Amino acid sequence: xxxxREAFENCRFRVENKMVKDKEMKVKxxxxxxxxxxxxxxxxxxxxxxxxxxxxxxxxxxxxxGRDARKGIEKARGEIAGFVGCDVSxxxxxxxxxxxxxxxxxxxxKANPRKKHIVTSVIxxxxxxxxxxxxxxxGYEVDYVGVDSDGIVSVSDVEKxxxxxxxxxxxxxxxxxxxxxxxxxxxxxxxKKAGVYFHTDAVQGFCKVELDLKxxxxxSVSGHKVFAPKGIGFLYVKKGTKISAILTGGGQEGGLRSxxxxxxxxxxxxxxxxxxxxxxxxxxxxxxxxIIRSRNKIVDGLLKIPGVxxxxxxxxxxxxxxxxxxxxxxGESLMLMLDRDGIFVSTGSACAxxxxxxxxVLRAIGVDDMYIHGSIRLTLGSDVVGNEDYVIGKIVxxxxxxxxxxxxxxxxxxxEDN
Length: 418
What we know:
Elements: H1 2-18, E1 30-31, H2 42-53, H3 64-84, E2 91-94, H4 97-111, E3 117-121, H5 126-136, E4 141-145, H6 155-161, E5 166-170, H7 184-194, E6 197-201, E7 218-222, E8 233-237, H8 263-278, H9 285-302, E9 308-310, E10 321-326, H10 331-340, E11 343-344, E12 346-347, E13 351-352, E14 355-356, H11 360-364, H12 369-372, E15 375-379, H13 388-405
Helix pairs in contact: 1-10, 2-8, 3-8, 4-5, 9-13, 10-13
């Protein structure tokens, strides 16, 4: 690993020193990082602004300004509950996915101290994995179930790990890196039969993949993945779930989440979902079909490049995700070159000038080192439609430039099936 890291860092140094920003305005700007965050709808921003400037009362205050803020929150809660298909009391507002995941797992642990076993997957979001690792230091046992080469959790593997003292099974709906969709409803049915709580991190799948809440006890959602502001989300907690607060204070959100409510954020989340439901905004059927066609065209174009690998499943995958690796180059350098050309993607591995970390998700599905470090993630939105050839062309061009200076040369016999 040391040799690979040193070689990639030398290449990146050469790339960064050769990159000169164009003084002219970019012809195209194509945002392909929607899994990281989405643009806030103008209508949502307007609704948020109104509550920041005019309806700025504290919802816990008893005067008219406070009562108006409270009415706004409860109206939004009702609208979101209607969208999710649950009771209003089952929606607990949080700051986003990370807090929701922490509240779900730690809240269950606090309320059910006799059960000291947790089951989760090796490709969960860090907010789940780090919470579980922290609980291991507090005397909990955690089983981390593996995945297949597509990144799919085996239902039978989960079932085999459930014990009498199992507190919760936590498996994400859609993986944030490779976009694979997990068999959530089947896992939930097994948990229900065993009398075990089931939690799913639905941050990446919410509004993209349909989900039946019948066998789900807790579900985490983040607003900024669905065209709402950052800093707002919610945890769905099914009635009867024994859970305790992990933040103490004023007892807001039914006693489960103390702290002054983010009224503008709550309003913004509700407005974003309302726009999506009404068809005025959001990814409707026709737009979704266009994005799927764009995704397929991009995948077909990229597969023509020697030494390329599509990571994860092409079938059991959220419709807008493409995680792709190129042999022998560094993903961060490719990301920086594409940024210069107005194409905004994310890296599949977290790299810094003094550190090169491999993706634990790609490692879990068996991707080779030479491909792991050359990975990028494209998560498409409507602005990619009609610009597929430009995206493909620029990636081909940049990959070619990086390979010309890479010490790791791709040979045809190394090419893997995709």
